[in-house]
Amino acid sequence: MLAYFHSTTTLNYIRSLLTSGFASLHSPRDWSLSHVRSPALRRGFETIIDGLSDALDFSRTIGADAGASNSYEQGGGRGTLGEVDFYTSHEGLMLAYESALTRELPVPSSVVPPQSANVNASSASSATSGSSPSQIKAHYNTGAHFLWIGDRTRQLTGAHVEYFRGIRNPIGIKVGPTMQPEELVRVLEIVNPEKEMGRVTLITRYGASKHSFLSSGGESSMVIVHPLIDERPSHFMKAFSLSLTLVEIYFHHSPSWLLVFFPEIREIEPSYSPPGGGTSALSMYIIDAHLPAHIRVVQKSGHPVAWICDPMHGNTQTSSSGLKTRHFNNIIAEITASLRIHTECDSRLNGVSLEFTGELNEEGYSVTECLGGSMELAEEELGLRYQSFCDPRLNFEQSLDIAFLMSNHFKKERRGMTQSSVIDALYQEFKKSSNA
């Protein structure tokens, strides 16, 4: 009961903060940039703030910012820039807990579920015979607005997929490097057979680390292709194990193709010399090896999904002191890679999932759990204010850094700049700072 009390109290407190204008964008010049050490970064952030302030001033001048003249408490509307839609979400991991919070409730009259959706059959039939649509009932998880299936619990015949199939909440599915394209489509067919719009969100989490692959130096050429999604008719032959990592080398009947697939993500030092010449190293991001295939197979299936990038969980590392951490540069690298790949695949990245906190200690300092950012948090500083009992979180300053970088990306995209120039401007400053 104490947990319920604290959960309810916290939600009510957040709602009261939002009502009071806590999340308002009307005063961007009040944002502090004192944490930014790099002069070039600070100038870039100040340029973004000046642009936002000018746009807000212009909106007020022409009367486009309705409701901003009076405060919400004085009878004025909060307006678009003063309002925030607030929803709760968590991983549906402990099914006993989730089941206890599942209720059969009337489907809102504004929602028309598909014919074979998870609704009460008797209620549905009575509704079609003339009763009110509000009598249609379905099972909802009342512990959150949105739940997701983790990358480790998405087995096709598992209890988690079965539970998620039966609730009417919008749901998410974590998609990692171990997810096969065919498996992804099968999960979608199970949880959303009617291809209902807005039902499923795919949350990708690959990691931004680079890995070296072999490239032949003779007449043979090499391409990195996942053999399970290669549509060319071919016959393959497994080869050898290298170090502690299982490496599968597949030779196509044509000598012009050498297909290499790493089913496990590990740091490796390739030393294999293919027939016909020497070797050369070719590096690529893990996300580049998987996300394009996942996007294309979903597009081909016709399933409507929203795509979200989770740049946190694929980029967890352990510091020399044994603390679990993440590096800001890897987080940004995965976000920018996702944006680029979605554009190349004629898709759209719909959101970013971040773990961050505005928590301060008694002296008013932010937590120190993730490396890097404009404050250039070093590994030896992690222990200063490391407070997480689970995963490391971005602090207030680092989350603001990401907001500025994303803003900079979309501003340049609107101006028609090329992808390479869109993602590099401020990000390169972070890389310079971290390498200094």
UniProtKB/TrEMBL annotation:
EC class (word): transferase
Domain of life per record: Eukaryota
InterPro entries: Aldolase_TIM (IPR013785), DAHP_synth_2 (IPR002480)
Stretch list, region Disordered: 107-135
Cofactor(s) the record lists: Mn(2+); Co(2+); Cd(2+)
A Pfam family assignment: DAHP_synth_2
One of the GO BP terms on file: amino acid biosynthetic process
The EC number(s) this enzyme carries: 2.5.1.54
Reaction(s) the record says it catalyses: D-erythrose 4-phosphate + phosphoenolpyruvate + H2O = 7-phospho-2-dehydro-3-deoxy-D-arabino-heptonate + phosphate
Binding, Mn(2+): 313, 355, 391
Feature: compositional bias, Low complexity: 107-134
Isomerase is among the record's keywords: no
Protein's UniProt keywords contain Transferase: yes
Annotated phosphoenolpyruvate binding sites: 174, 205
Keywords: Amino-acid biosynthesis, Aromatic amino acid biosynthesis, Cadmium, Cobalt, Manganese, Transferase
Any one GO molecular-function label of the UniProt entry: 3-deoxy-7-phosphoheptulonate synthase activity
Cofactor binding notes: Binds 1 divalent cation per subunit. The enzyme is active with manganese, cobalt or cadmium ions.
Pathway recorded for this protein: Metabolic intermediate biosynthesis; chorismate biosynthesis; chorismate from D-erythrose 4-phosphate and phosphoenolpyruvate: step 1/7
Protein family per UniProt: Belongs to the class-II DAHP synthase family.
Name recorded for this polypeptide: Phospho-2-dehydro-3-deoxyheptonate aldolase
Species, as recorded: Agrocybe pediades
Lineage: Eukaryota, Fungi, Dikarya, Basidiomycota, Agaricomycotina
